[in-house]
Design a protein that fits this description.
The protein has 150 residues and is mostly helical. It contains five helices and two strands. Helix 2 links the parallel strand 1 and strand 2. Keywords: Acetylation, Endoplasmic reticulum, Membrane, Mitochondrion, Mitochondrion outer membrane, Transferase, Transmembrane, Transmembrane helix.
Length: 150
């Protein structure tokens, strides 16, 4: 199969860049979401931060704060791999329709994952479906890159 040069002016690169930016923005939005949760619960991880709130206390075990932090950590464990393997995937000359839909699926799944995990927690399998939808996209792109390399 092999690799080809990325058409940086093409529709596929534009779509990938758009979705990569959306999921990177999503990771960045987790910072104020975590801060909001900390201030709402008056629970902080450091004494100097707790002093900023009249009822502030130091705790590393608040379940609501930890839920948002775990969602953020999950983003950090998945989104960089999407951006990296997506870049290589663009060099495999993929089908425009399939690639665009995979980028869309990943983005929607990651936003849904955060929504059902940290914003409005829903019971499983909502989070699992969102997680594995995005995970499947990374696996398919990774296998495509491996196949193109050999």
């Amino acid at each position: 199969m092999g690799f080809s040069a990325i058409d940086y002016e093409g529709e596929l690169f534009s779509c990938f860049a758009f979705h990569a930016a959306l999921v990177i923005l999503k990771v960045l939005l987790m910072v104020p979401l975590t801060a909001r949760q900390r201030f709402a619960k008056a629970v902080f991880s450091n004494a100097e931060d707790a002093r900023l709130h009249p009822k502030g206390k130091v705790s590393l075990v608040d379940p609501d704060v930890e839920r948002v932090r775990r969602a953020h950590l999950n983003d950090l464990e998945n989104i960089p791999f999407f951006v990296l393997i997506g870049w290589f995937y663009l060099m495999t000359n993929p089908s425009l329709v399939i690639a665009k839909n995979m980028f869309r699926l990943f983005t929607v799944c990651r936003y849904l994952h955060t929504f059902v995990y940290a914003v409005v927690p829903l019971p499983q399998p909502a989070r699992g479906i969102a997680f594995f939808g995005a995970f499947l996209v990374i696996v398919v792109m990774t296998v495509s890159v491996l196949l193109a390399a050999f």
